[in-house]
Amino acid sequence: MALTLKEIAKKQNRFVPGHRACPGCAAPIVLRHVLLAIDYPVVATCATGCMEVVSTIYPYTAWGCSFLHNAFENSAATCSGIESAYRALKKKGKIDKEIKFVAFGGDGGTYDIGLQSLSGAMERNHDMLYVCYDNEAYMNTGIQRSGATPRGASTNTAPAGKVIPGKPQANKDLTAIMVGHNIPYVAQAAVHNWKDLHQKVRKAIEKPGAAFINVFAPCYRGWRAKMDDSIELSRLAVSTCFWPLYEVEDGIYNLNHTPKEKLPISEYTKLQGRFKHLDAPENKGVLESLQNDVDVRWKRLVRRSEEDQAVEK
Amino acid sequence: MAEKIALTGNEAGALAFKHINPDVVGVYPITPQTELMHDVAKYVHDGDMDTELVTVESEHSAMSVCVGSSAGGARTMTATCGQGLALMWEIIYIASSYRLPIVMPVVNRALSAPINIHCDHSDSMGARDSGWIQLFCEDSQEIYDNMIMAIKIAENKDVLLPVMVCFDGFIISHTMQVLEVLDRETVSKFIGEYKPAYSVLDLDKPITVGGLDLPPFYFEHKRQQVEGMKKAEEVIDKVTKEYGELTGRNYGFYNGHQLEDAEIALVAMGSAAGTAKAAVDIARENGIKVGLMEPRVFRPFPEEKFASALENAKLTCVFDRSISFGNKGPLAIEIKSMAYDYELDVPIVNAIYGLGGRDITVEDFTGHINKLAEICKSGDIEHEPAYIGLRE
Homologous superfamily of B3-247 in CATH? Predict the structure, then answer.
């Protein structure tokens, strides 16, 4: 089957309209396409957060497949429980169909409070896929900083104030942490590049064992951008090398996309109110630090990918 | 085929796991539950159980895995106590609210701080509002029996609630006792095949579990949970009678020891009840008409049955192995509340004992029975709890 939008559009949508996400939110696009990319029955879990609360307001649901929400920090553990039940029942001949298991979580429920549960599930190598939709803050509770919030960004718990200009710390590299779990498949994807996302999800699903995909999903509301900017912001995050598209399959790094021209991070930050204060001369150092974060990580990734790919050849 | 053997409480619990042979078990160690799970793991790894063991990274994940597994239609169990139960606290409420029939031994251990690995009831008492059925065991026999009955009670269509089977850490979990056990075939027949009320693995009936439930609906959903607990009392009665027919061991909602004509009624749960029985017998020889009511079922709280057990006493003393700080012992609080509702004309006093594994002896009990006998005569009812064995 060719991976075209036309073909994808023919498939049954398992995250249906009628949910209450903000217009312009990238996360529902991520959820919908992850499910469209999987040509199997799916059982999904989701951490408490934007996607969970907008999609399951009793008595309605946007989920076209079975769905279980447990708590905030345990989407991975919960999913691993369902997957364990599946294996147990399949072994006893009580289930004969092939079912795939996907755990969703925002960066809140994945990078921070959910990290332990995610780590355990990945270490146990359950046959499941964890998808993080990363909008770089605790958005559902009203825009508070998370471990995914980039340096300098203003949030309501680390605001751009008179004395402290936004978040002092750099963001966590969760994808690298997942690589450290030695699972079969780890990848970074982004909402604007649907083809790359579909390819990665398909690959993750076919590989037995644990898989993790970190998907960039802008929140215009929390980032103080324009409502229709989500896709453009995702493109810019990739072109500035802030959010590289790469995969690590069985420990082998592969950088999927190198921008023709690496744009300065200011091309990306200038569209977002959460970075507006970095224009001020006294905050020049912060923007430089943010650029440095990007550059150091990008160089390291390029080098690692070149090394691994050279060995592969 | 019944067999008489000697096992510790943990071993008896593990044997119950083996005979029940659940589909999925979440495993996380905590003293003094640990050896129970070691035995279960050995059974599984030796091929004596057909169970998927999920060796999680914390108790919070243990219960999260259990919720996922049980919602997937698998018969699911785990075990914990103390800090482990405290860590699970968020998720145990979710397990019961999702009406998942998870069965979990709780090897009663004191809650920190200070850290203490020994027995008291603060852990399960802290969970008494969680919507779990709570059964208390005195010895290895009761552990084995209650765990098997727990499966059938939990999975009953009118109940669909998880069950905690509580027994005293170290005192019972690590003490060798004689008990009679069944076998896998008999137990399987008794508990039957698990037919879940719903399953996220049922592809013919996709279901959303755990949606956002706003003010227009949450209250009604909770009221339904109340009904489950109410029905649990009838179902516990029914299952207990069936088990009695199977084994000849007939349990009730409580065990009464020399209670019928008792003027002084002691109320105590767990291992201390065994000690109390010996003290009751000694006191009786000395002419004190004392008896013991030993609750087996704490949740649902069987008010009517407990009321009829205590209505003829002249004085009741409730022994609590935990404190509800700011009030008194939780068992005493609930017994008093029941006494008020049922208009029992019996003064009720409270004694706190055994916190953090502090031993309570036959002499402690006989000493306190003598004090109670004096209170009975004088009528000087003290509402402040007495502290047994405390260095004041």
Answer: Thiamin diphosphate (ThDP)-binding fold, Pyr/PP domains (3.40.50.970)
